[in-house]
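Hi, here's the filled form for the chain we discussed.

Project: internal
Contact: R.S.
Residues: 420
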Amino acid sequence: MGQLTVTPATGLLDELRHIRVAGLAAGQTVTLTARTRRGKGVDWVSQASFVADAQGTVDLQRDAPVAGDYQGISPLGLLWSQQPESQPATGAVFPDDLLQPLQTRISIEGSEASATLTQYLAAAGVTRREVREEGLVGTLFLPAGAGPHPAVIVLNGSGGGINEPRAALYASRGYAALALGYFKAPGLSGYISNTPLEYFERGLDWLRSEVKPAHDFVALSGQSRGGELVLLLGSLFPDKVSAVIGYVPSALVHGGQAAADPAVGRDGPAWLYQGKPLVHLWNDNRTANWQARDAGQRNAVSMRTALDDPEAVERARIKVENIKGPVILLSAGDDAAWPSDLFSRMVSERLEQHHHGWPVQHLDFPQAGHSILLPYIPSTWSNDGNPAANAEANEQSWQGVRQFLQDAVAARQASLEKHP
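And the returned structure, exactly as it came back:
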């Protein structure tokens, strides 16, 4: 009952696939099920039903399901609409071993016909190495081939840890990628409070020394608090940062918030520089309060109360005008954590006011939530946005970032050739 094909069957996580069923009767309804073993050994499953055309074919690039876990035409809706089969959804959507692929079995209900869709985060030849040097804690992914390669440092947000999936995919696309932990990582503090910014300067220096990047290009890529952090680092160490990629970032310096050491408190400092805490938005703020957050409402509701004190906002602004390189901002309009769309506009407007000499891009996804990640993974688990919008943001943000980096590296190379 039908022949199921996936083209290409095997590729990188970010590669679009063509799923097609042929050999059906005209007008026949067929149900497809997609099953993937993801992180922590949990199976994620989705299902959708389609009606065959007059030639007896179903083409997911052309056809919307008539029933199932997603609506509308979406070539890989069977992937992003998956939910865990046996437990509440979490963000554990990547394989436990990032050098191993995700394998999705797509089958036709009532038939033995099936096909396997294989997604790699790490391309053939990509190497993974744990870094425990000079006080740094992270994982270095290197592309296949001798290089040199342009480089990227990847920073996580308030969840801490080491963002290996994004670094692995950067490496698969030709970048030496250091996923750098700064809390909730082996040997480091369990909290964001009082993180010295010199740690990241040391990371920039170490990566340059270790991989000798092509064109001396080292970009920063950060998510959420990491998005705040990459803008901050670009402003403090402009000669060491070639480009800035801010996923759902902030235009302002913030305190420890939910990731704070209880002994320091959520209104205590997150960042130290030269031994001193950076002024943040909650310092001497006349309007800020956590009432909404403490009552169970979105964190973003309380965050907006702090924006009603213009003097406090000005004191906490990141001096993004000091950045010496291109900037891309990826924001979400249904962001439960903080107003990343507003913050991104504040950054781009400030750069325009100061006549920033490099390209600035802002890609906003009005219906998406805070967790803008990577393409073609489940987008059903977050508590903001809607799955279809989150899936679109995952896909389009990555496409935008890949093009941004390609252009930034080319511009850097041209500049060096013109002014050696």
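Let me know if anything looks off before we file it.
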